[in-house]
Amino acid sequence: MNELYSNHINLNAVTNSEFTYERVKAIADWLLARVDTRPRIAIVCGSGLGGLAEKVQNSMVFAYEQIPDFPRSTVVGHKGNLVIGLLDNVPVVCMQGRFHSYEGYSNALCTMPMKVFKLMGVETVILTCAAGGLNLSFDVGDIMVIKDHVAPLLWTLQNPLVGLNDDRFGPRFPAANKIYNKKLREEFKKIAKDKNIDLREGVYSSFGGPCYETVTELRALLQMGVDAVGMSTANEALVASYCGMKVFAIALVTNKAVIDYDSDNHPFHEEVIETANRRAQVLQELVTEFVKKISF
Ligand SMILES: O=P(O)(O)O[C@H]1O[C@H](CO)[C@@H](O)[C@H]1O
Ligand code: HPA
Predict the structure, then answer these.
(1) Is the bond leading into 39 cis (omega within 30 degrees of zero)?
(2) For residue 64, what is the domain's CATH number?
(3) What is the DSSP letter of 272?
(4) Is 265 annotated as a binding residue?
(5) What is the pTM of this model?
(6) Rounded Cα distance, 252 and 273, in Å
(7) Alpha-carbon span 192 to 49, nearest angstrom
(8) Which residue segment(s) compose the domain that 128 sits in?
(9) What's the CA gap between 169 and 176, in Å, rounded?
(10) Ligand 2 center to 63 CA (angstroms)
(11) What are the beta bridge partners of residue 85?
(12) Which positions does UniProt annotate for a purine D-ribonucleoside binding (predicted)?
């Protein structure tokens, strides 16, 4: 970046100019040089959902600190390991912990691992997250397949694609109307049906956090057709799709969003983790079966 401009450039643009194709490729190559498997599926574990990574066999576990130029996880419930191995014999790479913009990272940095996955040869990204249930018919513990998102930060210069574009990652003006692959959603729903597990499907929304939402913000989202709300995932889904990978995402409803001005209830992270722990096994079962199905 030209020195003259360097103090006048948006944070995402700075990240994108520093994490060049070559630099991201160096991270991908560093990882590939250390494992025998060649994963075509990547999984991101949301808050409290990292147990899935422990199901990966013959695994190589890389603490984020070990990986050159990788950010660090700072949130409870996000261990901070990249796990590469076999999930029921299917080669996968699994993020046991993700990055959020409220940790102080630019959205471009939060989503940089999607580019690493792309350059490792990954074709499908599975995103999981914890979210507050906004749809009045949702219960705590419900699993929602994400069919679309509303992410106000991505309307602004906090969009992770802001900055010089490198066409080797993806196009300057990517479409965002079919980020969440329909076939994969149908496949996942079929698996849940066969297992008699109730599923929801809906729209996910995320703000930047770290505070949970105000009552009025939640009511506005409800009016817009949002079903569940979190602080992640939409940015990763956008970048994974921009990079040409197929995207599938699920949100676990870990708490009810509070839309009553005078309610005494409020969301808290311990409840989020507790619900995630309680539902982790069902989620793991579904995702494992799904990975097997889509690997053919
Ligand atoms: O989206 P994940 O990482 O699952 O976590 C969700 O849970 C945390 C809040 O409790 C926030 O980080 C929110 O984004
Ligand atoms: O209610 C919530 N709001 C935002 N993020 C969340 N992550 C889990 N629950 C929530």
Answers:
(1) no
(2) 3.40.50.1580
(3) H
(4) no
(5) 0.97
(6) 11
(7) 18
(8) 3-295
(9) 16
(10) 26
(11) 92
(12) 213, 255
